[in-house]
Amino acid sequence: MTKTSTSNLTRLTYHRIYTDSQGDSHFDVVTVEQSLARAAPPAAPFYVSEDRAASKYRFYTFEPGWIGELHPAPTRQFLALLSGEVEMETTDGTVRRFGPGDLVLLEDTSGRGHVTRNTSDGYSTFLVVPAPAP
């Protein structure tokens, strides 16, 4: 069993795809700080980040072999992969593979966008939470 250090609990990271001023997309990694808090008394304290706006959610399920050709995101949204494996490619040529538990923020709502491919043998399902601009 691997011990988890406190520094791993106070910081979360997720992937982000954004558009530059030329309309090309790129990956970035974002770090979110958490602190120990009594967020749900009488439950014991746990690690919590600051609140961010969100008001709805949906699911995306991609069939085996599905390819979303170069496209911008329909809205700024978080995608949490629940099952399967996908790869995403930005216009700068970077390709990243994602599996269950990975989180991606799509902010490339303009420009050329990105490509998404279902690379698993089965279906891939995302929990999608539209996120208004901060």
Automatic annotation (TrEMBL):
In this chain the Cupin type-2 domain maps to 59-129
Fetch the InterPro entries from UniProt.
Answer: Cupin_2, RmlC-like_jellyroll, RmlC_Cupin_sf
Q: What is this protein called?
A: Cupin type-2 domain-containing protein
The species this protein was found in: Methanoculleus bourgensis (strain ATCC 43281 / DSM 3045 / OCM 15 / MS2) (Methanogenium bourgense)
Q: Lineage in the entry?
A: Archaea, Methanobacteriati, Methanobacteriota, Stenosarchaea group, Methanomicrobia
